[in-house]
Amino acid sequence: MLLLKLSAQDLLTLHSRRHMVPHLAARWRHFRGSDASVTERSAWAESLISLANDLVAADRGNVEMVVECAASLAEAEDPDPLLVDVVLVGRHPHEGRPSVQLVELKRWSTVTRIERATAELVHVPDFGDKKHPALQLRECYEAFTSSKGPFGNAEFECGGFAYLHNATDESVRPLIGVDAPTGAYARVYTADRRAQFLDDLREHFAAEGGASEAETMLRAMGLRNTPLLDAMNWSRGDDTVFTLRGRQKAVAEQILDAASKVLPDPYEPALVPDERRVIFLVTGGAGTGKSAIGLQIKAQLEAQGRTVKYASGSRAFNAAIQEHVGYGDKEFKETFVYFNKFVETPVPPLDVLICDEAHRLRDRSTNRFWTEPEREKYGKGPQVDELLDASQLTVFFLDEGQSVRPKEVGTVALIKDAAERYGAELLEYGLREQFRCGGSDAYIRWVRTVLRATDEKPEPWRPDGLMHIEVVDTPEELERIIRTEARAGASARMVAGYCWPWTEPVGEDKHLEADVRIGGWHRPWNAKSETYCADGVPPSDIWSVHPKGLGQIGCVYTAQGLEWDWCGVIMGEDMVRRGDKWVFRRGKERKEGPDSDVKRVDRPGSFDPKVSASGVDDDDFARLVRQAYHVLLTRASRATLLYSTDEETRAYLKEWAGQVEIHGLRPTYGNLPKEARPPHLPKAKRRRNRQRRKGGPDPRLF
Question: Quick check: bond before 373 cis, omega within 30?
Answer without folding.
Answer: no
